[in-house]
Write a structure and sequence with these properties.
Blueprint (H helix, E strand, L loop, with lengths): L15 H6 L1 H6 L2 H7 L3 H10 L8 H16 L10 H38 L3 H5 L2 H41 L13 H10 L4 H10 L1
Helix pairs in contact: 3-6, 3-8, 4-8, 5-8, 6-8
């Protein structure tokens, strides 16, 4: 291959984002998916170094940013507007859904591009890569995209941790109701309900919270 001949990629048809991350996992589009698919810090740092950049931020700082955003959002919220814990958690997930969707799109693109860069690297020499400015620009763009996905994932993790504290406070302020019946004086009534396969509304709610 000539020194000044651009490196040609034959990996345009690869769907590595689907193969590596899993079609089912990407389709879930949940916060748990983000936490599972966030690129690990060492991989991001190595990818940046190869592109002539360095990782300048710590995960703790990014997570704190996400937590601060949530605390500012929930400050002064009247939690009586939520019927139960499930309604509160659903609202929290909706608050972060746009961030989740953006992350999943970004991480799929970043991992796909990173894989293609790896394929080019394995099939070319250092001299060929150094002499091709288009490849160097592509490698840097891939590293930046992966870095952005990494930041987004840790921001989301920090935000969800902050919501976890909100959930704890809600549970403390709204303990589950006591059992509808006591074993001492309501035995006959309990047996009658069991026989008729009737479950009280409060018992059903309590079971839902514990599920």
């Amino acid at each position: 291959m000539s020194r000044d001949r651009p490196i040609q990629s034959d990996t345009a048809g690869l769907c590595t984002s689907v193969r590596r991350l899993g079609r089912e996992k990407l389709a879930e589009r949940t916060i748990e998916t983000v936490l599972q698919l966030t690129p690990d810090t060492e991989t991001v740092a190595t990818t940046l170094r190869a592109a002539g950049r360095r990782l300048s931020r710590k995960t703790e700082a990014i997570r704190r940013e996400g937590a601060r955003a949530v605390r500012a959002q929930v400050k002064g919220t009247d939690f009586s507007m939520f019927a139960d814990f499930d309604a509160l958690q659903e609202h929290a997930r909706l608050c972060l859904q746009e961030t989740v969707d953006a992350f999943l799109e970004l991480v799929a693109q970043a991992e796909n591009e990173r894989f293609q860069i790896e394929q080019i690297t394995q099939n070319t020499t250092v001299e060929q890569r150094l002499s091709d400015p288009a490849f160097r620009a592509r490698r840097e763009a891939a590293a930046v995209a992966l870095h952005q996905a990494w930041e987004s994932g840790h921001w989301t993790a920090g935000a969800w941790e902050a919501f976890g504290k909100v959930f704890d406070a809600y549970r403390k302020a709204n303990p589950p109701p006591p059992a509808a019946f006591s074993s001492n004086d309501t035995g006959p009534a309990r047996q009658d309900l069991v026989a008729r396969k009737i479950v009280s509304l409060e018992t059903w709610k309590a079971a839902g919270r514990q599920a």
